[in-house]
Structures
1.
Amino acid sequence: MFDWILGVIVAGGLIGVAFLMLAENVAPPIPSEVIMPLAGFAAAQGMLSFPGVVVAGTAGALAGAWLWYEVGRRVKDERLRRFVERHGRWLTLDLDDLERSQRFFRERGGWAVFLGRLLPGVRTFVSVPAGLMRMPQLAFLAWSLLGTALWTFLLAAAGYLLQSQHHRVEAWLDPIAYAVTALVVALYAWRVIRFRARG
């Protein structure tokens, strides 16, 4: 995969970086922890401009986030409510929880989206509940832009500064990704076990 990512960056330049970050948000096995440090390394070698790398990476990732947001938003309220009624235990939601979640995302979902865009293992998936819970589109895009721009800048800067050692970024971030994923799975399992539908 590393050679393929490198080939896309070399052949496609900034468009290749944007394409890879779009793909990373649509197909999570392609890791931004490899893409952006490698793009930062290419900028350090003079093959790409560093600001261009950050802008291209942010644009691609934001497009992918918006795609998943739209997938969630296009689920009709009535269909979502029926799904919650039937499968609420596995969603760890009942209808009261659904209404509270929708209010939260409408009023204060920005921080959830912003922080979610910075967390390995969560970045791709935070867009779906934001869409399902009808978070306002402009607010979603604004908070996603902030989180995504910060994430891509940090990864590209790490690759730029480390240069030939850019692969160490992924090694540093892997334990964090595993820890966050394990925590999310544990919290989900705990909520499924303890779930009690009201009413």
2.
Amino acid sequence: MPPTPHQGHVVVAPDKFKGTLEGAEVAARIAAGIRRAAPGTEVRELPVADGGEGTLAAALAAGFDRVPAKVAGPTGLPVDAALAVRGDTAVVELAQASGLARLPGGRTAPLAAGSYGVGQLIGRAVSRGAKRIVLGLGGSACTDGGAGMVQALGVSLRDADDVELPPGGAALRRLERIELGPLAGLLTGVEVVVACDVDNPLLGPRGATAVYGPQKGADGDDLVVLEEGLTRFADQVAAVTGRDVRQAPGAGAAGGVGFAALALLGATMRPGIELLLELLGFDEAVRGARLVVTGEGCLDAQTLHGKAPAGVAAAAARAGVRVAAVAGRLELSEPEWRAAGFTAAIALTDLAEQPGDSMTRAGELAEVAGEQLAGALLPA
């Protein structure tokens, strides 16, 4: 049974508002509004993520330790990244090393961008004694099938002249031989779990190249080249491992990094928000709560298919706790968001006095949203 309206705390568990506020900032602002409107209410801030960008920040906000690491960015230039560690669990966010935001000057490199830095982060986690690695996929700048990631972990990818392949998906067309090297020994006793909210296979019309290649700057001939490279890589991986996972759901995630994680790291896949809520201790945080507030930049049809607010709403419902949403924009009708389990939903665009305020004054408006929700849902 849910707690009576006058009992319990409030959990504020939003995802980031992309382009405006990080998840921790959203949580802090909504919480400030709630505390102002309902003095004395205990408010617990627990920013969440679905495995993509913001996963590292959510883990750090939940008490994980930040471990800095300088690794290769998507074009090979060094970037300052980090992983999150608590006990023998490490959280690796692909976007930290190989994300679109890491491209120098924002210039895409669809044929040459790689995932080497992701492998370096995994290697750093293993060297620190991690026995469970949570790999968050999302925001990738590369379409290399995870080739760079496994090269960083000791796998050798060689062409017909016995020369190691350079980074990028285009080079995979020349792949002739794979040597797994020290990979198996490196990951002995290490569980790799991929947080992923897409079910695309590696190849074909729903694959990594066709669906996500254009987002990374690929078009026309580039798409053909990348598909050929991934096909060649999948053929060679199947030959050396004896198993073919190219059609597995999620293999196409992050430019095919999901494929390499499944095929060569022995990873399992979990829905991103489900895994992150478990990792962040959401069930414990919501126990005895009177209200949960979640949100993201845009509450729309995609939200209903595995995005963070829908996952939070489902988890809150299991605990018998009401859940409300704050979003930058609200593109769901009231019947739609109510059917998804939300008691209330507020859009910053509806609070804004001027066009653009929902972006430039997002923090201030998130506080107003928190006040309004407290006034409506937390009677004194």
3.
Amino acid sequence: MASEKAIFITGGASGIGRAVAQRFAREGWIVGLADVDAKGLAETAALLPAGCASTHVMDVRDPDGWVEELTAFTDRAGDRLDVLFNNAGVALGGAFGETSLDDIERIIAINLTGVALGARIGYLFLKKTPGSCLLNTSSAAGIYGTGGAAIYSATKFGVRGLTEALDGEWHRENIRVRSIMPGFIDTPLLDKGVEGSDETVRDKVRRAGLEFTPVEDGAEQAWRAVHGDTLHTVIGKTAKRMHFAARWLPGRLRKQMRGRG
């Protein structure tokens, strides 16, 4: 196994984490699947070639869990960690003024602190594999602040900033740092309820006339991000339109965002 490349994926029980696991497994990679959802992890592992995956029940908010599970995975993978996919996250929609303090703390802890812990602890393992890559999941909400998803957007800006900072800081250590910035990837996260509403995130997206990007497309872009030189890979029509507008039409985008929420 020492000659095979290895990827450790948080949020591997479903969604884009599951799709990325399938994409890398097709290329013969050793895959570590991490999540708090043991049942979902088992379901993902069952979709992969026999013997290529290990499952790791962990909470990204727990530093000791990071150390324990990355140690177990790299021991299995011949002391390699070619890619750490810092992907675990939760979505929350609704008016910020009606968002509970507990929800604010939870979203920050999972989406931002969990990513920072993964990067910091993962660094100890990534630096042992020359040319390794830290891949973080940011979002189109990390391109421009998104009304109706304020705290989620704030965390994804944080992930974007961490990615940019570490891209510069770790370059001389031969660790590449990248992010993916998807729009609305068709995953179970879209089925979460919107605070103060009977709608789900999926309902709101449909009502706004925006598109869903197939999760397989997101996985393919993650593969390309790991193997390319682009710092932030923007995924989906909505994200690409936002990226263009934020750069070239910021005034128009600001007016548009004032109509959301």
